[in-house]
Amino acid sequence: MHQVLYCLTEEHDWRLVALGGAVCLLASAAAISLFHRARATKGVGRLAWLGLDAAVSGCGIWATHFIAMLAYGPGGAGAYNIPVTILSLVFAISVTFVGLSIAVSSSRAVWIALGGAIVGSGVAAMHYTGMAALEIPARVGWIGSTVAVSVLSGIVFAALALLMAARRDDLFHALTATVLLTVGIVAHHFTAMGAVVLTPDPTLAIGGLSIPPASLSFLTASAAVAIIAIALVAALLDRRAKGELGAQQMVLDTALENMSQGLCMFDADGKIMLFNERYAAMLRRTDIALAGRLLVDVLREEEAKGEWHGDADEFFARLVADAREGRTTTDVVNRFGRSIRVVNQPMQGGGWVATFEDITEWLEAQAKISHMARHDALTSLPNRVLFHEQLEQGLRRTRSGDQLAVLCLDLDHFKDINDSLGHPIGDALLKEVGRRLTAAVGESDTVARLGGDEFAVVQIGRSEETAARSLAGRLVEIISAPYEIDDHQIVIGVSIGISLSPQDGSDPSELLKNADLALYRAKADGRGTYRFFETGMDARAQARRLLEMDLRAALQRDEFEAYYQPIRDVASGRVVAFEALLRWNHPQRGLIAPIDFIPLAEETGLILQLGEFVLRSACTDAATWPDDVDLAVNLSPVQFKNPNLIASVTAALAVSGLDARRLELEITESVLLQNSEATLTTLHELRAMGVRISLDDFGTGYSSLSYLRSFPFDKIKIDRSFVSELATREDSMAIIRAVTGLGRSLGIVTTAEGVENDVQLELLRREGCTQAQGYLFSKPRPASDVAMMLNRPRLLASA
Ligand SMILES: Nc1nc2c(ncn2[C@@H]2O[C@@H]3COP(=O)(O)O[C@H]4[C@@H](O)[C@H](n5cnc6c(=O)[nH]c(N)nc65)O[C@@H]4COP(=O)(O)O[C@H]3[C@H]2O)c(=O)[nH]1
C-alpha cells in the first residue's frame, strides 16, 4: 500500500492523472450505456452494440493507461514498442468483448459477475501488455503481491460494475456502475504501477519500432475520447429512441390487452406476428406456443387434438390467398359453444389482421328481439307481422295451385269478461284460447293473435271451401267449450270470418280485409258462428263507413231530435209518462229510426254525445209537462261505462229544473252484464238521487229473472215480442202472467210494450199489468205533439 501511495504521489504528474481519470470516467459511462443498449437489443443488433461497447471500453482502458503512463515520471525517459502496444489494445478490446457478451446474455447474477470479472481481467491484460511495450534504460521488476492486488481490484470492481448495471437501466444504476468501473480501471492501474520496481541499466537501448510516450499518449487519448464521445452520443440517442419506442410499445400493449376483441396479426406467409391475450383466451390457445408460428401449424395441432374441424391446409391457403388479393372477409364461426365474428383485414405490404369478437350474447339478444317483434308476448303466438309474412309465403304456394283460407276470429263479448272478472282472468282466457286454436289446426296452418281478442288462422294447402268450413265449425265448437280459470267457469263464443284465395284476393291485406268483413257479418248475424266473404259485404262495409261519417256530421249539424211515446196506466187509461225515443232528421234520407244508427253509435262511442243530448233535451221538454207525467229515457250500456254518467244526469236535471222523481232510466240486461259491482254502485247512486230505474226488454235475455234479484228495479218493461203474440201463443200469455204476478208480489210496476190492439190491452188488463205502451195509443211523436197526446187517448196517425 505504501508503495502504491508513494508511486502515486511521488512518481506521477497529478494533472495528467486527472486527465486519465476523466477519460476513464467518460469511457466507463459510455461502456455502461452501451452495455444497457446491448441488453435491450436482440440478435444482430445486440452483437453490434457489444462490438461497439468492447471497442469503446478497450480504447478507454487503453487511453487511460497511456495518459496515466505519461503522468508517470520514470516512463517519460523511454518509448513504446509499437507491435506490443497494438497487442495491448487488441487484448483490451477482445477480452472485454468476451466478458461483456457473457454478462449481456444472462440475467443470472453469477454469469453477469463472471462477465464483469473477465472485463476486469481484460483491463489487467491490457495493462501488463502495455507495460511490456515500455522501453526504458532500466530493468522492470514486479512485486508479486501488489500485482495480485491490482488484478483482483480490477476484477472485483468490474464485476460489481456490471452487476449494478444489469440490475436496472436507470440513471442511478448507470452512474453507480460507471463509478465502479472507473474505480476498477484506475485502482488496477495505480496499484499495478505501485508494483513496479525499476533498476537503472544504461545498457538497455530503445528499439527502432517504438514511439515516444507523449506522442502515443496524446494520439491515443484524443482518438479514444473521440470514439468514446461518439459512442456515448449514439448510446444516448438510441436510449431516447428506445425510450420513445418503449412508451409507444406500452401504449400499444395496453390498448391490445384491454380490447374486448381478440386480435392476431399474420405476416404474408401466415406466421403469427402479434396477438393479444383475448385472442388466445377466445380460441383457447393460451397453452400453446403462438408467436412466430405458422397458423397452419397451430390449426394442424388443434385438428390432431380434435379441437378444430376442417381441412387446415385448405383453410389456411384460402386465408393467405384472400390477404394476398386484398380481400376483407367476415365470418361467424362457432368455437366452444360461442359465436365468434372473425374479420380478416389485409395489411399493406402483405399479411393480414384478424379480429375476433364474441357475439354470442348479441346474437341471442337479436334472436330475442326478433322473436318479440314477431310474436305476441301473452300467447307466444305469431303476431300480425309474422302472420303477414306467413300469409305471403302461403300465397306464393297458392300460385303453384294450392288453395289458402284466412280465418279471422273474434271472441264474443270478451270485453265483458275482462271487465267483470279482471284482466288476469282475461289474459288467462286468451292464452287458453290460443292453446286450443293451435291444437285444433293442421301442422302446416298458422295461428296468430292479431291483438286484443282477435285471432287469425291461415289454412294452407287443402283449403277448398269445405275444408275451411269444417275447420271453422270445429273452432266455434272448441272455443265455445267451457273454461275453468281460477275457479271461474267461463263460457265464451267466437265469431269467424273466412276469405279464400285465390277467389277472394291474392294479397295478404285484401284477404285479411275480406275475412274481416265476413267476421263483421258473422257478428251481425248473432255471433257464435262463421261466415264466408261475399262480394256484397264490401259495399255494406262501405255504407257503414259512410253512415259513421254522416253520424259525426249530424251531431255537429243538430240533426237529432227526441220523440215521445205515451205510456198509459192500464186501469185508468191516463198518460202517466212519455218514453223519449231518438230520431235522426237526415237531410237526404228523411227520418231515420234508432235501430239503424244506435248500434253504430255504440260501436264508435258517439252514443255518449247522443245520450247526453237526449237526456238534456228530454228533461227540458218534460219540465214543461204536467207534474204527474213522468219521463222515461233509454240508457245504452256504453253510456253506463262512462264515469260521467251521474254528473250528466245531475246536470240535465239541474239545467231543466225537472224533479229527479219524474225521471225514469231504462236499462237492458246487457248493462248488468258488464262490471256488475261498478254498475250496481252507479244504479244505487241514481236511485239515491230519486231517479227510478226500469228493466227494459224484459224476457229477451238469458237470465232476466236473476237480474231482478241483483237490483231493486222500479219497473219491468215486458218486451214487445211477448205482447204481439199474446193472443196467439199460450207460452207468451204464460210469461206475461208470470211477470205481472212477480211484479205484483215484489211491488214493481209492469209495463207492456208494443200494445197494438184492444185485444192485447184487454188481456193485459186481465192479467193485472200496470201500464201499457204502443201504437194503440200513439206512435212516438215530436215534443210539440205531447199536449195533443195527453188530451187524446188514441192517436193513430203515424209519426
Ligand atoms: N212495432 C211496434 N213498435 C213499437 C210499438 N210501440 C213502441 N214501439 C217501438 O218500440 C221501441 C221501444 O223502445 P225500446 O224497446 O226502448 O227500443 C229502443 C231503444 O232500445 C233504442 N233507442 C231509442 N232511442 C234511444 C235513446 O235515446 N237512447 C238509447 N240508448 N237507445 C234508444 O232504439 C230502440 C228502438 O227505438 P224505436 O225505433 O223508437 O222503437 C221504439 C218504439 O217506436 C208498437 O206498438 N209496435
UniProtKB/TrEMBL annotation:
Residues 544-794 form the EAL domain. Residues 402-535 form the GGDEF domain. SMART domains: EAL, GGDEF. GO terms for cellular component: membrane. Gene3D superfamilies: 3.30.70.270, EAL domain (3.20.20.450), PAS domain (3.30.450.20). InterPro entries: Biofilm_reg_signaling (IPR052155), EAL_dom (IPR001633), EAL_sf (IPR035919), GGDEF_dom (IPR000160), MHYT_dom (IPR005330), Nucleotide_cyclase (IPR029787), PAS (IPR000014), PAS-like_dom_sf (IPR035965). Keywords: Membrane, Transmembrane, Transmembrane helix. The chain crosses the membrane at residues 14-35, 47-72, 78-102, 109-128, 140-163, 175-198, 218-237. Residues 12-199 form the MHYT domain. Pfam families: EAL, GGDEF, MHYT, PAS_7. GO terms for biological process: cellular response to nitric oxide. It catalyses: 3',3'-c-di-GMP + H2O = 5'-phosphoguanylyl(3'->5')guanosine + H(+). It comes from the Bacteria. The keyword Transport does not apply. One of its GO terms (molecular function) is cyclic-guanylate-specific phosphodiesterase activity. This is GGDEF domain-containing protein. It comes from Bradyrhizobium amphicarpaeae.
